[in-house]
Each structure stands twice: as C-alpha cells, then as structure tokens.
Amino acid sequence: MIRLHVTHDLAAGAELTLDEAQSRYLGAVMRAKPGDELRVFNGRDGEWRAIVGAVGKRAVVLQIIDPARPQAAGPDLDLLIALVKRGPLETIVEKAAELGVRRIRPVITERTNADHTRVDRLRAIATEASEQTGRLDVPQVLEPVKLETLIGGWEPGRRLLFCDEAGDAKPVLAAVTERGPWAVLVGPEGGFSPRERELLRSLSYAVAATLGPRILRADTAAISALTLWQAAAGDWNP
What we know:
Layout: E1 3-5, E2 15-17, H1 20-29, E3 37-41, E4 47-55, E5 60-69, E6 77-82, H2 86-98, E7 103-108, H3 119-133, E8 140-141, E9 145-146, H4 147-152, E10 159-163, E11 170-171, H5 172-175, E12 182-186, H6 194-201, E13 206-210, H7 218-233
Parallel strand pairs: 1-3, 6-7, 6-12, 7-8, 7-9, 10-12, 10-13, 11-13
Antiparallel strand pairs: 2-5, 3-4, 4-5
Helix pairs in contact: 2-3, 2-7
C-alpha cells in the first residue's frame, strides 16, 4: 500500500492536488490509475484512505475517503548529530526517522569534518523513510547550529544523553533511567574535544554514556544510541 505525506488538511470527501514531485511519482513511477487506493497522512489528522481521482500530465488529484488510523504521538526524542560526510549523514537521517525520532538537528563541533549540508535533501529522505515505515508524522530536520549555540538555547526539562567514549561514562541502558523529553548527541568521527567534553559534563541536564568497548563510526554510533534509548525509555518499552 502506497503511503504519502501531504501538507493538506484531511477530511472525508476532500480533494487534494499533489505537488509535481508526488504526482510524477504516482503517475510515472507507480503507474497509478483512477480508482487506485493509497494512504495519506499529514502529521495532524491521522492516516486516511484515499483513491486516485484523476491522473494528469502535471498533477494527480486524490479523493479522501475515510480515516484509517487516528493520530498518535511518537517518543519525544531529538537527535543531535555532528555534521559528517554526505553518505553517512543521509543514512543517519533515514534510520533516525525509522527509529521514531521527533527532530533531527545537525551540530557543528570543533572536530566536525564537514561544514555544510543540503537540508532540503535530508528532509526529503526523512519524509520518504516516514512514508515507508508507517509513521504518522515526519521528523523535523533543522538547519545546522554550533554546539555552544544549541546549549545556550536549551529547552528546559529536556535531558541530554551524549555519547562519550572517554572517562567513566555509563552504558546507555544504565544512564537512561527516566522517561520524558530527551535528546541524543553524537559527535563527529574524531569525537568531542576536551573543552566540549568538559562543557557537556558540567550541564545539570546532561548524562554521558558509552556505546561499548569499540570505536564506532558516526552513523553506527547514532543508530546504536537511538536503538538503546528506545529500549530503555522509548515506545519499544511501553
């Protein structure tokens, strides 16, 4: 069953015209025909059953039929990931969306080994992953921000789990002992600088955690940290 994320309001009897990219996907790639059924969601109104009403050269029109699933909230979890090269970063965004992350924010650290990224492409990857995994929303992907700026505007009440391979950090499953809003911070391939590590360890809302005895690539570390958090405090552990 094809699922599409749309921005339109969803209600029984509504008609909506898909944008050019989605119309091309349905018409040219999936060969959709009038009467074909699919599912649509917008992150607000749940998932709805829809049928293809018309397939034109430039646009596809959908007819909204009835609700299929009510809107449900996923875990209140942010992923903060130091900018890395394009391939690993795109993998991280895709897997973070699959793992239920609410928001993804690239971070610039002292040892960041990339200085820019295409946020529009990352958003498209997050959307496609959400469509394929059955989520009822799409994680936000925000513009890169410096680590100091991020900490300076920290959201009150949100705990921070930062993956620290030095010192006396606890394993993630031992470090995450309470529920509520969390963020997971994964550093660059070279790790956090001593100054950054000292700053993070000084924060009252932060807890350091290790991902085990082996040195992991940034994409492996991000996926592992999110998986362990889900097992400890996410919707894998109701």
